[in-house]
Amino acid sequence: MEPAEAKQRIEKLKAEINQHNYRYYVLDSPEISDAEYDELMRELQGLEAEFPQFLTPDSPTQRVGAAPLEAFGVVEHPLPLLSLGNAFSKEELAAWYRRTLKLTGSQKFDFAGEHKIDGLAVALTYVDGKLTTGATRGDGLRGEDITQNLKTVRSIPLSVRGDFPPRFEVRGEVFLPKAGFEKLNRERAEEGLPLFANPRNAAAGSVRQLDPRITARRPLDIYIYMLGYAEDRATPPTHWETMQYLKSLGFKINPNNQLLKSIEEVEEYYARWVERRESLPYEADGIVVKINQIALQERLGDIGREPRWAVAYKFPAVQGTTVLERIDINVGRTGTLNPVAILKPVAVGGVTIKHAALHNEDDIRRKDIRVGDTVVIQRAGEVIPQVIGPTPDSRERARREKEFSLLDKLPKNDKGRPLCPECGKESIVKPEGEVMYYCSNATCPAQAQQRIEHFASRGAMDIEGIGEAQSVILFNHGLVKNAAELYRLEEKRAELLELENMGEKSVENLLKAINASKERPLARLIFALGIRHIGGETAEILARRFRSIEPLSKASRDELMKIEAIGPKIADSILAFFRQEENHKIIQGLKEAGVRLEEKGKTAEMPLDGKEFVITGRLESFSRQEAEEKIKALGGTAKDGVTKKTSYLVVGADPGGTKLAKANELGTPQIGEKELLRLLEGKAI
Ligand code: IVH
User: Domain 445-592 adopts which CATH fold?
Assistant: First the structure.
């Protein structure tokens, strides 16, 4: 392609992808499928790799995360970021209102009611319509520069549309939706990492990562809740209209915000959301009441670090205490044995709680939680609440059950060996260095159903119409025993039609959706297989490296460990997966059904695909490790010794004799640092 043509196509793709991002992440109403979106992104990435001169910082490809930082820079806030005063009761709200009335005199005003989202305050600066800086609140006057991380948040526009001020700042709350928070903690529990206590800590931890690639993996979202300042352009006279205006520029505004005419309407708004807070996809700890008229806001001003024109009216706490009656063990998708707290039913914030998550044996011991204890439970947005720990008096009680042991809870065979509580097999393992116990039986029914559900889920093969309920039905009726059998449902139309809630039309749609999933990119398929410890990110790395399932299934431990980002735990998990006969059968079944098991064509990003490098001596422009990382990032491999398979020996200053001698003996091509640099730029040598 000619540069001029490439430039045009890149511009077109960027505009198109930005629009799809906006529809998906801001409006929540996508127009194209994930697969079509992926296709556009891949085309753009390919072109930008080929024509790097046309790559701009506001390209949607730049959301994946830049290289890690040593430390965050400091941002001075031109206008301080304030915090809010609290009201914990109706009386305290009334007192705030009376104080306000005294100061406003006869001037009429109304209110904006908003949710107080439990996340992290950020200030976003736009110059000439482009996002230039994203900063944390810090101490209100100076925050941290987290621009690179915020760029990975899909609902933050990298550039705005419409009639925008030449320079302006908006403020909002970055948060992790409840579902994302739970998923993150589940993954952390499996990996034995400390859990985040609530979505706010999780959001803060995600946004304040020195490595933006980690942030990029967390499903962060944002709601903009005010305009900080705008230069050289008149902005609307009320907060409410300002929010509508920001919405028109492309910012994401909470649809649950409401214009309220009186303090009674504020009370009603509060009461409504106290009731419904559980149904919200994010964690909110109260409402924020703001005086709507900006001129009045300015007149009221601040006191200390708090504006007089706004107040946080907090929801009642969502902790409760109850008795831990039992600890049961559930079997998860990848065979994890998850301890679950069975509680004496208790109402917490209007919902009756009977079970709570306990994560893993180490966590239970660390918190010293024992059956019979009175425990504090917290609903921090999770569908399943968490056990925080025993209450202090329960710690001191003399007669307590002994320390929790997961193995004690499992059924045993006559030899006293532990059995899986679901399949009854003697299949319990605990890999070295891991905190979780697993059932290693690939045909364990509890796992099989959840694996089908995972296979079809969004981010995996994305088969619309197969969620938890449907996968349970299909599995329990014996119609689908593993993922591959999804693709044989075509032959079972008659049986499908007999299922409850399945008419001609829904069967038709289901089969269509299944068929459409055959062409998903390899990374999604690898993720969909449900290999333990392989998330979307690792699946992509594996897809890029192996380009097909077959070589991945045959890769040795050494080969896997050579890949950046793959450590012994993941390598062993991949090996364990492909050791299971059952999994090969599934892959064979997928192949026979016509599911794509390899990557389509070569991408421009992987110019060193299949090339093996050995480096000897000192390099000038980077350390050896950096050079090796760059080689790997472009699809090549880096080895320590010269063999017949070596593509190039890179010779730096003061090279080692052994490698040179071996290369001379085998006739291995030898290149210098300059040539290596050319190869890394995708050029020929
Ligand atoms: S307005 C001057 N609106 O609450 C007004 N804040 O304690 C200050 N927050 O740091 C902020 N949702 O992080 C406002 N709808 C909302 C909010 C909100 C959450 C947070 C914000 C702020 C803290 C104040």
Answer: DNA polymerase; domain 1 (1.10.150)
